[in-house]
């Protein structure tokens, strides 16, 4: 977009604890995050009403281990998050909780738009990580949530 990150990207999440984690992570990469004019906008849905950006990243936090019902409790919450995006609304997290939601719920309506066109999906190639060999002689590549959960148990 030819603009500073703070002018074109915003990050929205339902929980203030996640806001704090994102701000901390941004700080580790020398990215100023908060609500100032020269900062990457990061906040909860409630705190960012009116903060439009070309790209909104929605960090939903929920996994299949909790149903994500908090997002559906107030239909305007997800509407506010989506309406902050002028060009793109990127959802990060376990998309199963969106896809499995009842079609009439806010998450179900979001699923309709996210999953109708496969061009909406972002795919990432997995590159070699020789740095991991320094920690573990035989790393195992985990490619999905099921493998991740099995690895942790």
Automatic annotation (TrEMBL):
InterPro entries: Coronavir_polyprotein_1ab (IPR050534), DNA2/NAM7-like_C (IPR041679), P-loop_NTPase (IPR027417), SF1_C_Upf1 (IPR047187). It comes from the Bacteria. GO terms for molecular function: 5'-3' DNA helicase activity; ATP binding; hydrolase activity. It holds the Pfam family AAA_12. The keyword Metal-binding does not apply. Keywords: ATP-binding, Helicase, Hydrolase, Nucleotide-binding. Residues 7-94 form the DNA2/NAM7 helicase-like C-terminal domain. The keyword Nucleotide-binding applies. Transmembrane segments: none annotated. PANTHER family: DNA-BINDING PROTEIN SMUBP-2 (PTHR43788:SF8), DNA2/NAM7 HELICASE FAMILY MEMBER (PTHR43788). This is DNA helicase.
């Amino acid at each position: 977009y030819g603009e500073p990150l703070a002018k074109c990207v915003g990050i929205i999440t339902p929980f203030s604890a996640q806001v704090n984690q994102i701000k901390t992570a941004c700080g580790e990469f020398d990215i100023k995050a908060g609500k100032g004019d020269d900062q990457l906008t990061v906040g909860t849905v409630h705190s960012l009403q009116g903060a439009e950006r070309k790209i909104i990243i929605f960090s939903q936090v929920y996994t299949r281990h909790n149903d994500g019902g908090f997002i559906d409790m107030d239909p305007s919450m997800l509407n506010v998050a989506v309406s902050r995006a002028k060009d793109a609304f990127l959802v990060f997290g376990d998309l199963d909780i969106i896809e499995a939601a009842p079609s009439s719920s806010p998450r179900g309506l979001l699923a309709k738009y996210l999953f109708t066109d496969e061009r909406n999906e972002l795919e990432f190639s997995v590159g070699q990580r020789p740095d991991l060999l320094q920690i573990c002689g035989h790393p195992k590549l985990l490619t999905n949530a099921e493998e991740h959960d099995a690895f942790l148990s």
